[in-house]
């Protein structure tokens, strides 16, 4: 199986990346990036809201991998959208990351009344080359349809929570039909399915862990994954998902585990907005 996918911008993106949400301890994110680089990761996913772009920048500089061989994603937060400060927010992210460009810039959440204007400003970043691809996060079909009426530029990526306990099948198919690559955050569901009987049985069958089974299931659905970890062993384990393939009947069994379980929280400023 390929380890990368071509986005609708013709940019190549790794199917596996390192999530760094809440990695804000001293040298925590720097060490995680260095461990990930040794394990073969080439995609790092951060955001201005994670308050660790400075550390990510240091980790990039320390990891021993050339910048051109890395794929760096960051995101614009809700307050910057409300202020209309897209250019300023982007510049500050670049400064913290110590980079001249990012490979992917995302709208973190579809802030009502703001995300369409944010997208128009992000189109300028794409045109300038400072963001080599632009996309969205936490967008449902209705958000994507609203965006399509407003702009001819299709998001390269929609980053959503996606795992066996929240199989967003309709949204996935919608994105596939329109050339939008789905990328899964929280693909391990914060550990929620690690003790599931079916996942444990399949882990034994394939001589893998339940986490590796879940990540592989996402990959075979055509979904890229960015599991978060700062633990060197787990970072390594999460990378070992390209050397086996789940049989069709096992994929179908995992499909039945869906509970529409959201494990990631909705920001406080959007809790009155239906998602």
At a glance:
The protein is α/β, with parallel strands linked by helices and 275 residues long.
Strands of the widest sheet, in order across it, are 3-4-5-6-7-8-9-10
Rg, alpha carbons: 18 Å
CATH class: Alpha Beta
Given the helix and strand composition, which structural class is it?
A: alpha/beta
Name the helix and strand elements from N-terminus to C-terminus, one letter apiece. EEEHEHEHHEHEHEHEHHEHH
Helicity level, as a percent range? 25-40%
Number of helices: 11
**Given the C-alpha coordinates, what overall shape results?**
globular
**Roughly what is the average pLDDT, rounded to an integer?**
97
Kindly state the number of beta strands: 10
Strand content: 5-15%
CATH architecture: Alpha-Beta Barrel
Task: Report the biggest beta sheet as strand number plus sense, adding barrel if it closes.
Answer: 8 strands, parallel
Sequence stretches where pLDDT stays below 50 over 5 or more residues: none
């Amino acid at each position: 199986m390929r380890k990368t996918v071509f986005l609708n911008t013709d940019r190549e993106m790794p199917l596996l990346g390192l999530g760094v949400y809440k990695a804000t301890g001293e040298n925590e994110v720097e060490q995680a990036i260095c461990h990930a680089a040794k394990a073969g990761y080439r995609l790092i996913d951060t955001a201005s809201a994670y308050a660790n772009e400075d550390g990510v920048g240091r980790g990039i500089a320390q990891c021993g991998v050339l910048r051109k061989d890395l794929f760096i994603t960051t995101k614009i937060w809700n307050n910057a959208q409300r202020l209309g400060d897209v250019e300023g927010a982007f510049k500050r992210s670049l400064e913290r990351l110590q980079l001249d460009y990012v490979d992917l810039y995302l709208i973190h959440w579809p802030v009502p009344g703001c995300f369409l204007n944010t997208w128009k400003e992000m189109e300028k970043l794409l045109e300038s080359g400072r963001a080599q691809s632009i996309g969205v996060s936490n967008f449902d079909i209705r958000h994507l349809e609203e965006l399509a009426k407003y702009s001819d530029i299709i998001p390269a990526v929609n980053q959503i929570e996606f795992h066996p306990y929240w199989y967003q099948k309709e949204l996935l198919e919608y994105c596939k039909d329109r050339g939008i690559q789905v990328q899964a955050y929280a693909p391990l569901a914060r550990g929620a399915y690690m003790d599931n009987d079916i996942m444990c049985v399949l882990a034994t069958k394939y001589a893998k862990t339940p986490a590796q089974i879940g990540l592989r299931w996402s990959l075979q659905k055509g979904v890229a994954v960015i599991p978060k970890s700062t633990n060197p062993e787990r970072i390594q384990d999460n990378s070992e998902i390209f050397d086996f393939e789940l049989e069709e009947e096992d994929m179908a069994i995992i499909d039945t585990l869906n509970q529409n379980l959201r494990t990631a929280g909705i920001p406080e400023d959007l809790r009155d907005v239906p998602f």
